[in-house]
Amino acid sequence: MKKLSARRRHPLAALVVLIFALAVTGGLYAVLAPSGEAQAEETAQTLAIEEGKALYSVGCSSCHGNEGQGGTGGPSLVGVGAASVDFQVGTGRMPMAQPGPQAERKPTVYNQAEIDQLAAYIASLGPGPAVPESDAYDPAQGDPARGGELFRTNCSQCHNYTGQGGALTHGKFAPNLADVNPRHLYEAMLTGPQNMPSFPDGVLPEDAKRDIIAWLDATNTSESPNPGGLSLGGYGPVGEGFFAWTIGIGMLIAVAVWIAARSAKAKKS
């Protein structure tokens, strides 16, 4: 103890303590401080949020409020997540052309970089579904046969058997899913836009969504094979067969009546 007390009184003791403190501080900073790459990502994200807020103030705030809290013309966007913005703006549904029962797909107003900035700003307002990674919606990695079963169970009531769409009540409709970007299909299932129910991963896992996308890619794109020829809206073999039989038999009856009316016996009578 006497030696320690003597060292504390040494003229260089304070300098040694200062050097030691600086070394410890520097070491802790090196361990705990974010890396240069992480700082760059954080800076880019901050910049994207600021740019997105500027775009939002010009194009969206009149309906959804200055802070995304909602208004008389549009719902609150707090917690809807980046995936919802990417779907709604990326398909041209937002901004809406005019008030109506349902926002329709149309050419986009913003480019993808601006959509990403809007999504970053809306995501900063509250936690919500993120834009999915490409592996999640790649149809090449899905099982179209299983996807067909899932689609018929969960989606065909509105979109019919091959996703060609159908009418709903009060002027609303389930849109045709032909040639829709697979990412937007995934985001629609994840977020449930407008009349559509949402299917979070707890209800419909990621692989199931990918299988449904694979099914639509196999049956309802401009490049999908159609060995049956002209379809009747994808209503399925029973409905389309019934329609074909009704029209076919009706035409046969009409031809038979026409021939009988012009036969020789009919002319004599």
TrEMBL record:
Domain of life per record: Bacteria
A GO MF label: quinol-cytochrome-c reductase activity
Iron among keywords: yes
Transmembrane segments: 242-261
Stretches assigned to the Cytochrome c domain: 47-126, 142-220
Modification after translation (UniProt): Binds 2 heme c groups covalently per subunit.
Positions bound to heme c 2: 155, 158-159
Membrane topology, as annotated: Multi-pass membrane protein
Alphabetical UniProt keywords: Cell membrane, Electron transport, Heme, Iron, Membrane, Metal-binding, Repeat, Respiratory chain, Translocase, Transmembrane, Transmembrane helix, Transport
Main location group: membrane
Cellular localisation: Cell membrane
Gene Ontology CC: plasma membrane
PROSITE patterns: CYTC (PS51007)
Keyword Transmembrane helix: yes
Catalytic reaction equation(s): a quinol + 2 Fe(III)-[cytochrome c](out) = a quinone + 2 Fe(II)-[cytochrome c](out) + 2 H(+)(out)
Enzyme Commission number(s) from the entry: 7.1.1.8
Residues given in the record as heme c 1 binding sites: 60, 63-64
Subunit structure: The cytochrome bc1 complex is composed of a cytochrome b (QcrB), the Rieske iron-sulfur protein (QcrA) and a diheme cytochrome c (QcrC) subunit.
Protein name per Swiss-Prot or TrEMBL: Cytochrome bc1 complex cytochrome c subunit
Record organism: Streptomyces xiamenensis
